[in-house]
Amino acid sequence: MPTSFLPRRSVEFDFDFDKFLAALHYLAVRRVPELDKYKVCKLLFLADKYHLVRYGRPIVGDRYCPLPHGPVPSHSLDLLNEFIKSENEEPEEVSRMSDVLELDRKFQYPRLMSKRKMGSEEIEALSKSDIEALDHVIKTFGAKGFYELKSLTHSVYAYKRGVEELSDMRY
């Protein structure tokens, strides 16, 4: 049967905060240049895609939404936004992010930096294949800037498909 006649099924994964925090801290410890929330979102997308294709599961398990600047991990972006705007009363997750990360606010888009080395608990949250995927993404895409990452992620089939589905729903 041609695939166009098959019903579309969406696959959903459970967001794993511990893996998100460990992956985020890993990116910061590895000193990815110009690591702002946009770059984090793009690198997490690319790492999850790499891992899903090779190992059958994503790293973080976030839900990706097709937004104008490309695919965005919705839970991760919400947490990053909370972290950036956080005041004194922080949700537990933002507080845990504050334990390992700091913001360099001298830039228009604050950059994330590690406060310390990764602890054993954080390292244990990531599998060897998770680290392989993160290392691959850092090596391949870590030095790329906003426009390169935007262009790259806009060319991914899953993003194009998501945009098509959104435009189909609007009519």
Strand order of the largest sheet: 1-2
First-last Cα distance: 28 Å
Over all CA atoms, what is the radius of gyration? Answer: 17 Å
- Average pLDDT figure: 87
Q: Tell me the number of structural domains.
A: 1
Large-scale geometry:
globular
Number of E-type strands: 4
> How are helices and strands ordered from N to C?
HHEEHHEEHHHH
Low-confidence stretches: none
Given helix and strand content, the structural type is mainly alpha
Query: What's the main sheet like?
Result: 2 strands, antiparallel
Your description of this structure?
The chain is mainly α. The protein has one domain. Helix content is 56%, strand content 9%. It has helices at 17-29, 37-55, 74-85, 92-100, 120-125, 128-141, 146-154, 157-169; strands spanning 64-67, 70-73, 101-104, 111-114. The strands form two sheets. Strands 1-2 form a two-stranded antiparallel sheet. Helix 2 runs parallel beside helix 7 (146-154). The longest helix has 19 residues, at 37-55. It is globular, with a radius of gyration of 17 Å. The mean pLDDT is 87.
Write the layout of secondary structure elements.
Blueprint: H1 17-29, H2 37-55, E1 64-67, E2 70-73, H3 74-85, H4 92-100, E3 101-104, E4 111-114, H5 120-125, H6 128-141, H7 146-154, H8 157-169
Antiparallel strand pairs: 1-2, 3-4
Helix pairs in contact: 2-6, 2-7, 3-4
